[in-house]
Amino acid sequence: MLLELFPLVAKGYLEGKRKVEFEAKREANKKAIAADRSKIKRTAQLKIRDLTLRDGQQSLFATRVPQHEIEKVLPFYKDAKFYAMEVWGGAIPDSVMRYLNEDPWYRLESIKEVIGDVSYLTALSRGRNLFGYSPYPESVIEGFNKNAVKSGLGIMRIFDCLNDVKNMETTIKYIKEAGGIADCAVCYTVDPKFTRKQRIQAVLSGKKLPKKIFDVDYFLNKAKQMEALGADMISVKDMAGLIPPSLSGQIIKRLKKEVKVPIDFHTHCTPGYGLGAVLMAIINGVDIVDTNILNFAGGPAAPAFEIIQIFADKLGLDTGVDLDAVVKINAELKGIRERIAEFDSYKMFPREFDITADYLPADIDALFDKAIVLAKADKEAELLEVCNAIDVWFNFPAPNEEVKAAEIPGGMYTNMLAQLKGLGLEDLLPTVLKKVPEVRVAAGCPPLVTPSSQIIGVQAVNYVLDVNSGKAPYTNVNNQFYNLVKGEYGETPIDIDPDYRQKICGQREATAYDVSKYKAPENLTLEEFGGVKLAQNEKEMLLLELFPTVALPYLKNLRAEAYYNEQAEIEEQKQREAAERRAAFDGMTAEQKEEKVLKALYNFEWLSAQESSEIKQPEWKVSKLDQKTIDMLNREKPKSTLGD
Q1: Coil vs helix vs strand at 163
Q2: What pLDDT is attached to residue 586?
Q3: CATH at 188
Q4: I want to staple 246 with a disulfide (CB 3.0 to 4.6 A). Which of 41, 334, 350, 380 is the partner?
Q5: Which residues of 96-115 are buried (b: 16+ CB within 10 A; e: fewer)?
Q6: Residues in contact with 256: Cβ distance below 8 Å, sequence separation at least 6, in sequence order
Q7: Greatest distance between any 2 Cα atoms in the chain
Q8: For residue 578, what are the contacts with CB-CB under 8 A and spacing of at least 6?
Q9: Are residues 438 and 295 in the same domain?
Q10: Where is the Pyruvate carboxyltransferase domain (predicted)?
């Protein structure tokens, strides 16, 4: 009725009234939900490692969140009190220089300055390869880890693309010596899957295909080796999201039984296993799980913290996280995601959900209870169905069925597709996918993790392209595949056939990488910028060694900017001094000005100080009578007839 009688006035009044009612209801909900949570009897702890600022943005937005956006959420992260925050390593150091023109060391140091000791800051590195493809000498490994801890790092997650524990030994040593925590990651991977035709061909050729390699015992033995080397904690790192829930539970159960250090579980949601696998890890006693906050979760990223918190509440587990702070972080993340939309491949935002003020619908809440029952009963198929329904309600991307069927990392899949599309041969992708297991087994069956997944993927494409163009297989061998087969990456899970190594590398025996061949990049002197050095301290020199092609232009730009700023400052100083002289001159009396001008006129630079002092300056002045005459003549001067 009010809208009909007074449409303009009533609309504003009613909207305001509804808003007040809505806020009042939310406030009541918050109090009720907080009261319910306070009644939960929490019998154990579940620590949370938040991945949002590193793995989250890398998985979803190509690592394009700039420093000024990061700074917006840090005060809330300090209040949130996560056990750990992954903020560095991976693609961060490369990307912030390459795309954002920012200092990777500053990123870490600035986060530490705000977070302090509230949460451990964590990073990811590839053992003795750090961020590259070839091993580095110990001086570089020591320098990097020492400076990382000095800059604020608390935990270094160390992995090797072959799960060759020897490649992790020096990083474990140096990170612990620097006062950091060594988190050693066992990379999860699947056994190669062969078609029936491939198996028949293998039998006919007399070459047996390998039996199961990557079983629970394999991962357990790797974890024990890492613990023996001094690992402070062990992570099961499922970078492709390929670990199904039942196997996740089995691995965690064995690790908790036979390994003494804390266990962390890390996975992604790409093929649709993520949420179920994390729940099974929790049910089987994992100490820490990796999550992202809602607006940076799901799809290729890790499961959402908010969903895991709901499970923790129902299981009586204490995460120690301040949920009010999480709500504030999530609100900021939405804005950040909107501002970097050009890098958002999904552009699919999750449902608006405030974990402190929103109740789940009864049917969705029942799904959480059902998932726990199914996980405890280890009913994987039904558990996945329920967890996928939860993901659908939260509006996360559907499972990637192509990646799930191929059982390879999503990044590997997209890289191969991009390689073929660039040649206009994307129709060959199914053939390449069938060839991946064969190429992988021939190369020693490396786990499919960066960079070995990319190496195998590129070579599988090359193999198919060779055959498709009528050439012999392995006519084109990429350099990194050559080095992998040669033995420079380390020990592969199964032995490489010497005949195959001879075919690829021209030698039958494996050869380890010779670190003595390492040559540090030259620290150039930049004459054009005042003769300064390109890298001006140890941290910058490390950037140059670890990321030579990216750090060189980045550091050169820094030096150029500093040089031009310095020159501008010098010019500004000159201008200030000139302005001060002008002001001083303007403040003089006429006699003082006249005296100063005359002195300047007789200041002959080619004369000595003695000769200059001997010159007698004239004492000429304009008399008052002369000035009166001049004024009179000016008044009597004929006026111009021309216009202005």
Answers
A1: coil
A2: 84
A3: 3.20.20.70
A4: 380
A5: bbbebebbbbebbebbbeeb
A6: 263, 284, 285, 286
A7: 127
A8: none
A9: no
A10: 46-327
CB 48 within 8 A of CB 288: yes
Q: Residues 379, 381, 382, 383: what is their CA dihedral angle, to the nearest 10 degrees?
A: 70
Encode pLDDT of 500-545 as tens digits. 999 999 999 999 998 888 899 999 999 999 999 999 999 999 999 9
Same domain, 276 and 159: yes
194 and 153 belong to one structural domain:
yes
More confident residue, 354 or 629: 354
Structural domain that includes position 28: 1-39
- In 3D space, the residue among 434, 384, 445 whose CA is nearest the CA of residue 190 turns out to be 445
CA distance readout (Å), 278 to 135, 497, 562:
33, 38, 48
> Do 502 and 558 sit in the same domain of this protein?
no
Provide the 3-class DSSP secondary structure of residue 493. coil
**Residue 627 CB-density burial (10 A; 0-12 exposed, 13-18 middle, 19+ buried):** exposed
Element at 224 (helix H, strand E): helix 216-228
123 near 150, Cβ under 8 Å? no
pLDDT tens digits, 107-129: 999 999 999 999 999 999 999 99
Number of domains in the chain: 4
Looking at residue 624, what is its pLDDT?
45
Q: Helix (H, G, I), strand (E, B), or coil: what is residue 48? A: strand
CA distance 398 to 275: 12
CA distance 380 to 373: 11
> pLDDT for 250-270, tens place per residue?
999 999 999 999 999 999 999
Contact partners, residue 545, CB within 8 Å, separation at least 6: 136, 140, 520, 521
Give helix 169-177 / helix 138-150 axis angle, nearest 10°.
Answer: 40
In whole angstroms, what is the distance from residue 294 CA to residue 333 CA?
A: 9
Residue 373 or residue 14, greater confidence: 373
